[in-house]
Write a structure and sequence with these properties.
alpha+beta; 13 strands; 20% strand; eight-stranded mixed beta sheet; BirA Bifunctional Protein, domain 2; 376 residues; globular
């Protein structure tokens, strides 16, 4: 079971020997450098416009840095393995200083912003979010630089259910499928038998059901196995401890609701109102996560989840007080990886082909050998 525990967080690749093995040996980009940049911004405009249209969102500004005392930064998981970059701003000769952090995601900030912008039920916001996650192992689809469409929408209490979650996920999938069609109309060479298009429909499956199918496999191996049957899936219920004693993956306790009890279509007790969209990437021949999202905690489930993770001290922070005192609206939200989406839709083998960031020398050397052009 040690493999299952080790598999709860992180990219699933731990050495550059492994990275070299998994990167394709017969790769050639279907777009040149200029075409790639044009395609990126065409996709960006399409996805932003249509995501806002489908979910009734408006684009808003988003912070790159936040005050530590606010408690709105995202810890990503609950084992303390991914910590934000923190720095001291010695404002006014340290008379009025600020301790600040670079955001890792805008998950909690967005819920506060819904209140600040006066959003009503059915209305929401979308951001062109940038973040830094310094504790990732940098491979072909994990970068220290993160770009996401981070979105959040006000919902009502009676929308806190699986049906509404699935309805929202299906609208996001419609946008991503539309983006694929859009960019292939502009660049027909992207449509090729070598790299099959995404399926028209997502398959919804609960984390508990995947465990039942593959009880002896660690999480990422389970995901890889089911993607051979269903090349695009939404995994429901990430964070709750499953029957093998482990959650499907670690999730922070103070945004997605992974504790609430639900029922499968067959009446089986389940937990969680959150999940991830994963697809099979035909270029890398690996699992490929596009988005993580969910219906957010209310006052009751926030207390339960913080108690389960031993983090009840968080309740003193302003963000958490806002939920406990019902001052922040009920919401659903998530983050769609921008570079992850470009990489998939433009048939690229590496994130560095669609975003500019830092990579270790060893990885850049591997990419040169594999005919992968990393932007610098």
């Amino acid at each position: 079971m040690a493999d299952k525990k080790a598999d709860l967080a992180g990219p699933g690749i731990g050495t550059y020997e492994e990275v070299e093995k998994i990167l394709p040996g017969d790769y050639g980009s279907l777009l040149d450098h200029k075409e790639t940049q044009r395609a990126i911004f065409s996709l960006k405009n399409y996805i932003e416009e249509n995501l806002c249209g489908e979910l009734n969102l408006m684009m808003v500004q988003v912070p790159l840095i936040v005050d530590v005392e606010s408690g709105v930064n995202d810890l990503l998981d609950r084992d303390g393995s991914r910590t934000p970059i923190q720095f001291h701003i010695s404002n006014d000769y340290d008379k009025h200083p600020i301790d600040a952090q670079v955001v890792q995601a805008a998950t909690k900030w967005k819920r506060v912003a819904l209140k600040e912008y006066g959003m009503n039920a059915g209305e929401g916001i979308c951001t062109d979010m940038r973040a830094v996650r310094k504790d990732y192992f940098l491979d072909h689809d994990h970068s220290a630089y993160v770009d996401q469409w981070d979105w959040e929408k006000v919902i009502t209490a009676d929308q806190r259910n699986l049906a509404y979650l699935k309805e929202t996920v299906s609208k996001i999938w419609k946008v991503l499928k539309g983006a694929e069609t859009h960019v292939q109309e502009l660049f027909p060479q992207l449509k090729t038998d070598k790299y099959p298009n995404l399926p028209d429909e997502l398959t919804f499956v609960h984390a508990e059901d995947i465990l039942d199918m593959y009880p002896d496999m660690p999480r990422k191996q389970r995901e890889t196995a089911i993607l051979q049957k269903h090349p695009a899936i939404f995994i429901i219920g990430i964070g709750w401890t499953l029957n093998d004693g482990y959650p499907h993956e670690l999730r922070a306790a103070d945004y997605d609701d992974w504790v609430i009890e639900t029922r499968s279509e067959g009446g089986k007790p389940m937990h969680g109102l959150n999940g991830d969209i994963l697809v099979w990437n035909p270029v890398t021949k690996r699992r490929h996560e596009l988005t993580s999202m969910g219906i957010r905690v209310n006052a009751e489930t926030l207390r339960k989840q913080l108690a389960m993770t031993g983090q009840l001290d968080f309740l003193k922070l302003p963000y958490h007080q806002g939920i406990i005192n019902n001052e922040l609206p009920l919401s659903i939200g998530g983050g769609i990886g921008q570079s992850r989406s470009y990489m998939l839709l433009l048939r690229k083998a590496h994130l560095g082909e669609v975003s500019v960031t830092v990579w270790p020398k060893i990885l850049k050397e591997i990419c040169v050998k594999k005919n992968i052009h990393v932007l610098e």
